[in-house]
Amino acid sequence: VPVRFGFHDKSHDPVFLEHSLKQGGSFPLAERKENNIRQRVLLLLTPGFFLLLFYSCYYADFYETGLEGVRFWDILFEGKIHHFYSQVFLIGNMQYVPLYDFPMYIIFALWNFPLWVVEKCTGIDIYHSVLCLMWMKSMLLFWLLLFQKAFGGVIELAVDGSRNRLSEMRNRGEMLFLTSTFTVTGIAVLGQYDIITMTLMMLGLKAYLQGDKKWFTIWFALAAPLKYFSLLIYAPLVLMDEKRIRRILVQAFSVILP
Questions:
Q1: Does pLDDT of 48 surpass 50?
Q2: On the CB side of 88, how many CA atoms lie within 13 Å of its CA?
Q3: Cα separation of 223 and 204, whole Å?
Q4: Which of 87, 96, 124, 164 is the most exposed place for a label (fewest CB within 10 A)?
Q5: Which one is predicted more confidently, 13 or 109?
């Protein structure tokens, strides 16, 4: 029996339906309508509360990565990109050094390129501008939206049913993730970047369910240099699908080499 936010959805119960039909059949329709209204209200209010929390919490990590993403372009145009990890980045009396793997800084640099342009053209102190700081943190929101889209696609591939049923399950899954402790604490409050790797992993899982081995490997090859925990998902999926040692090794090296 499907579960609707913690309680049983009796409108799918054959015994309940039979009893209801004898009574005129009005209660299941009313219950379904009430639940639909409740879900719509949640779908409207939850993102609003999330955005309020997201932009109300300030954590120094995105401040640091925003600085490094902007200075990435200065170092690149100076021809010193091979010395990137020997740089010390300064904001006032605070010193920062690069700690992530290099592909992560490429993502930071691409997102913060508009801020580099703003700083060069206007001279605005982007590290003390509310709008600029909101832009820095909004990168997490961008990746969260990509994750939700990929996650919804995986749900539709994994669940059988009518179009309405798939839409309902997708909305539930996306809502559960948006209100989870990982999302609220890890993304909205602390601003952690695991969501980037998780998005690439989810795209890889979607390709796996579609039987597209090429993109399955590509997405995980992009995810692995960012956070190595993606290999904990990639390895079991490969072993479930492939039993020949040579092909297992080929797929392993395809992900590890980048």
A1: yes
A2: 5
A3: 9
A4: 164
A5: 109
